[in-house]
Amino acid sequence: MIYLEYFIYLRVAVVWAGRNLPSYLGPTPAQLVFLFIILVANSIILFALAIFLARNIWCLGGNVTTIEGWEIERHETLVRRARTRGGYLDGPDGTRVNIRKQEFPYDIGILQNMRQGMGGTPLLWLWPFAATPSNESGLDFEINGFEDPSALWPPPDPDRMPRSSNRPPFEQPFVYNEDLSAIQYNVDAFRRRQQEDLKRYDEKTTTSIRRRPFQGRYKNEEFRDESLASQTTESKDIGSGEEGWRDSEGDRLNDFGVDEDAEFYDEDEISLAELFRK
Superkingdom, according to UniProt (predicted)? Predict the structure, then answer.
């Protein structure tokens, strides 16, 4: 990008030097537009890459990653807050957490940091085909020894600590209200409800009521004499099938405990399993 910027600068310098000459001695308007677009685009990209380069050099010099940089800034913020409150901050469940200043343990010096990140030979740092550090180098890191080896990094953050549960740990899964007897009670209750549901289903499926086919009753009703239209609804129900049946004493099926509103099934609609069972 720097090389391209150099050649673009040479052409822009020539155009700028001849800005007072007649237009026919200079570039065309289209050439000027494209030259301006290339200059702006290359300059923006070069500026962004320069920022990234400076950021990477700073991270290599301090031996920190972006996330570790955020952790350092968060720790510095907690230290400033703790200084105004006697060195303690409130954690979850009302606990008091001691916050003290901790140094980043992996900053071992600028030169050592660069060697750890890019290899031990400075002459090969700018060579793109040089070998990268081995994978083992990313598992064990040297520390500067400023802090006690038992000190944790990142330091404790009261805002990110999980809440402690007051309930005792369960030794077995599927415990309800910490009472093992409730498990068997729920299972037995479920099985009782299941048996009752199956019983009701069997009672419904084993009961079938036959009546005269609907098509025949519909045709009889359609071709009935018009003189019967003035008769009462009760007289129509008498000859409309089993649901309107009455005996000689005037009793209906409902008087004998038969549900007249139940769904009726024709002979042809009964399943083969039901017919074989009968």
Answer: Eukaryota
Distance, CA of 19 to chain centre: 60
Amino acid identity, position 60: L
Of 102, 136, 87, 96, the C-alpha closest to 116 is 136
* Inter-residue contact 137 to 100 (CB < 8 Å): no
For residue 114, which phi and psi values (nearest 5 degrees)?
-65, -40
Judge whether 8 and 44 are in contact, CB under 8 Å.
no
Structure confidence by residue, pLDDT tens digits, 197-238: 888 766 655 554 455 555 555 556 655 655 555 554 444 444
Write the DSSP assignment of 4-36 as a string of letters. Answer: HHHHHHHHHHHHHHTTTS-GGGS--HHHHHHHH
Flag whether the pTM goes above 0.85: no
CA distances from 210 to 203, 213, 236, 263, 273 (A): 17, 9, 20, 10, 17
Residue 182 vs residues 166, 173, 194: alpha-carbon distances, Å: 21, 13, 18
